[in-house]
Design the sequence.
């Protein structure tokens, strides 16, 4: 049986993940769940509710929550890391500061993503170090954002660590594609994919009998993008995401040879994104008014009632990939995942030192990469520009370099000029003075 620490215990995603872990105990049996956060107060609300839930549904599991690293990271097998340094208050600034200058505001793309990256690097490295200090055999499954920058930082600063960097967005989109093909799950497909995180393309999709699914998916993408898959699955989706899935059709039209990750809309249609953004009410506001209120309200209710009976929490089905990944390591399942890993030739005509998102086979010793061959000029050009943004951000963090961070913003395809880059940067520095290294 396994012991798991959730780093970012106070996250609004934590209850859904805890419930999801319980649902999969038959294949991933758990003996201990520990929550860790550096914000005791915020974590306590979530943890107390989860404690009640666990007592009622899986009393055999040892549960604890703490802000003390030694308690959190001793005697564990996996760290599930989803930290948000600066929380939603800072996300709001990441989104609103660029919008003030007519540049898109997004938590992982453009200046907002760079700002968030500068906050996250230290936090993720710290947790990795705690894990290695107190449980040297443990693995960290990291889906903290902005994943591209965080992954590059772990490559540069902790190249030998037992960390797997993974993102849920391709998984989500693959579920939608499986749905388009009438398959019950993405696990009935084998894909070829290359790119950076939140910046990639599917170039091969087969079913498990070897039939090419691309023609069918392309037909669908041409007509609908990912939009109509939404109504099929009947899930609740906020307006900002509906936008994203609708725009996927136009993103696809730019290169109909490949199926794009929806995040490419930020780079290919930044003008559209800005036009359809409200500079006074961004995704951070949507989340604070929606998910934050819901999760914390529900947690408080559970604690007040002293029972989780009738609570509205649901297992985060979307997050079962975390169990799949943990099982792949723990049980050596050799399952295939898209991971963010050092390229080293897997994308043949691209920077060997880039952190690329590609299919890998995961087993007890970690991952093995699946070579994706050479990529077309269009994707290569876009990726070269974007990977430079990510590398310069990490270098700026390591060296405390204003110049490099200015270059990173200037290179971002979402920013029109070095002048605008500097205006945004100077505002971001002011806003992030409690979080960034001194530049
Ligand atoms: C997707 C992305 C994540 C991102 C999340 C944002 O799952 O893959 O990288 O963090 O969306 O969700 P939110 O609801 O906070 O905007």
Sequence:
């Amino acid at each position: 049986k396994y012991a798991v620490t959730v780093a970012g215990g106070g996250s609004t995603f934590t209850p859904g993940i805890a419930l999801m872990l319980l649902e999969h105990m038959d294949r991933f049996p758990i003996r201990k769940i520990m929550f860790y956060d550096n914000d005791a107060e915020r974590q306590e609300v979530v943890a107390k509710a989860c404690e009640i839930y666990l007592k009622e549904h899986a009393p055999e599991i040892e549960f604890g929550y703490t802000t003390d690293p030694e308690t959190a990271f001793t005697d564990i097998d996996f760290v599930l890391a989803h930290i948000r340094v600066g929380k939603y208050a800072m996300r709001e600034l990441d989104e609103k500061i660029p919008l003030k200058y007519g540049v898109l505001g997004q938590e992982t793309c453009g200046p907002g993503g760079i700002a968030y990256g500068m906050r996250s690097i230290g936090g993720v490295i710290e947790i990795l170090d705690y894990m290695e200090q107190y449980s040297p055999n443990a693995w960290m499954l990291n889906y903290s954002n902005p994943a591209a920058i965080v992954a590059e930082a772990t490559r540069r600063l902790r190249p030998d660590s037992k960390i797997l960097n993974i993102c849920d967005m391709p998984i989500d989109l693959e579920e939608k594609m499986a749905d388009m093909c009438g398959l019950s799950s993405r696990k009935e497909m084998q894909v070829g994919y290359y790119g950076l995180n939140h910046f990639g393309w599917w170039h091969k999709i087969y079913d498990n009998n070897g039939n090419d699914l691309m023609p069918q998916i392309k037909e669908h993408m041409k007509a609908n993008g990912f939009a109509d898959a939404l109504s099929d699955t009947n899930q609740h989706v906020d307006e900002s995401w509906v936008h994203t899935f609708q725009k996927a059709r136009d993103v696809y039209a730019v290169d109909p040879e490949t199926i794009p990750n929806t995040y490419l809309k930020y780079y290919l249609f930044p003008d559209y994104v800005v036009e359809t953004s409200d500079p006074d009410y961004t995704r951070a506001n949507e989340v604070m008014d929606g998910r934050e209120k819901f999760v914390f309200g529900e947690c408080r209710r559970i604690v007040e009632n002293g029972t989780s009976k009738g609570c509205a929490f649901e297992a985060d089905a979307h997050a079962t990939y975390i169990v799949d990944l943990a099982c792949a390591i723990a049980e050596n399942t050799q399952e295939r995942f898209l991971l963010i890993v050092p390229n080293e030739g897997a994308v043949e005509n691209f920077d060997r030192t880039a952190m690329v998102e590609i299919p890998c086979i995961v087993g007890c010793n970690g991952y093995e990469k699946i070579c994706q061959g050479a990529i077309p000029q269009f994707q290569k050009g876009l990726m070269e520009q974007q990977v430079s943004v990510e590398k310069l951000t990490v270098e700026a963090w390591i060296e405390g370099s204003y110049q490099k961070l200015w270059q990173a913003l200037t290179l971002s395809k979402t920013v029109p000029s070095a002048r605008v880059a500097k205006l945004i940067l100077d505002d971001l520095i002011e806003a992030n003075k409690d979080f960034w290294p001194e530049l």
User: Anything to note?
Assistant: Residues 108, 145, 167-169, 283, 287 surround 6-O-phosphono-alpha-D-glucopyranose (CB under 6 Å). The longest helix spans residues 110-134.
